[in-house]
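Form 7-S
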Amino acid sequence: MKNNHKNRPNVVFLIVDCLRQDKLGATGYKPNLTPNLNKLYVNGLKATKHYSNGCVTQVAFPSIFTSSLPLDFGGYNDGIKNRPVSFPETLLNEGYETWGAVTGHPCCSHYGYDRGFQTFQNLIDLYQWFTQLFKVELREALDDIKLKKISISSFITKVKDKYKNYLKMTIEYLDEMDSLNLPNQGWNRKNLKQKIHKEINLIENNTKIIAKKIIDQDKNIRFFMGQENIDKFSKLKVFVYNKARDLLNKKIFILSRRKCFSAKLVNKNFKDFFFKKNNKKPFFAYLHYFEIHEAKLLIANFSLRQTFNIVKSIYKASKRVFNRGGFLYDVALSRVDTEIGDLIKFLEKEKVIDNTIIVITGDHGANAGIPNRKIFSTSSNMYEMFGDEYHHVPLIFYGPGIKKSEITKTCSHIDLAPTLLNILNIKIPSSFLGKPITEKLINKNDVVIAENTGNGLCDIKEKKIAISLRTKKIKIVYDIINFNVKEREVYDLSKDQWGFSNIVKTNKLLKDRKLLMTIAKKRSLKLKKESSKKN
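Output:
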């Protein structure tokens, strides 16, 4: 499977956000919505028991790019900024011309994911970018000030520089969008930049006013960017808008400011890169598709130019059992598969398909139809997101020198980069935790780890840690509080694939549970040592 150093193939790496393993036609899903993915899956190297090391995107991506676990190196707040070498950096050092485009804010250059890329395009949705600021970056400080746990001066200290830097980064993204001639997506970028400059000026000259505005308006602050004083009518207008939106969006998003850039645009930008690249060097192209993640926005993001493709995808997805849910997911999946087909046709037309390795995975899954698990009382709770619908994702390698084969051992995203580098005959960095999935099975109890510290900022020292350990036979979810490990959920996967029957209070599978408890305690001890170093 190894390639000659002097004639290495190109690599197209595709992350389809929220792509589930069980939703592929090739794995038995009906209706068959993925003819193009099926071709790669059936004829390539695929791992049938491959899992994400974390859910959501922000938690999952560090493992994909640096073959490290989500809570390593202080956690995932800063993405991969503080982690050892990423695999795109390795490919760049080996002579590859590197290009990437992302359509999700948690995996943009703000979090270090441009490392190793000569060209990196941040095609992010501005609404979600601003939401991230108040949902994650400033959330805990906001909650503390509203509960009177901290003083206004402490609040200012916590948020001033973070808010200012976030706004400066926003201007950089707006400039980048202008340089790429991207669609406005409902935003007046020129006007927004002017408002942000005014907001930065207020931060520097009247911090208390900005602090009060942040506390009073919270995530609605985007409506009042650059304003020193906000009148009651403006506040009322925003209040009515939000109430109307929430009412209309209960089941399907009809009124939304969220507008992700399409897979079609990502493909177009890749094609532009392809025609400008250095033909004397192999290329590594990374494409990130966000449509499935934003499946509920089908109506909100509808445009006449997309009518035919949307109607076609709805028709395909309608050949299904409706009472099992997940219809909008299926429509989005069909549309994404069409774009993957377009990408393959382009590579064939340009006669590079025979010298190009295609790698495809999903960063994590989604709650869409089967198993119809209703576990959240309000918003998503990351502590509870360890079911297969969130973690069982495809891993496909297709191209020259790759034999049609199936890997059935349990593996995860930390194994993706080592596998690709092994195929390319490139030395695997010593910092990588994972192993090539093609290596012979040494330990029949290969364990996959998934972990997080719940919603909001990652905090290994102060917050509860949730860790899932799984083998082919068993899955256990642990709560780690003050680095003390306790079983929360235990599932016999041979009888209970989806994890509905928690046997934690029984004496079943005690031998396996003892083994995994040892691993969980070792993981907890390592995290405790890392948190001590950080502080």
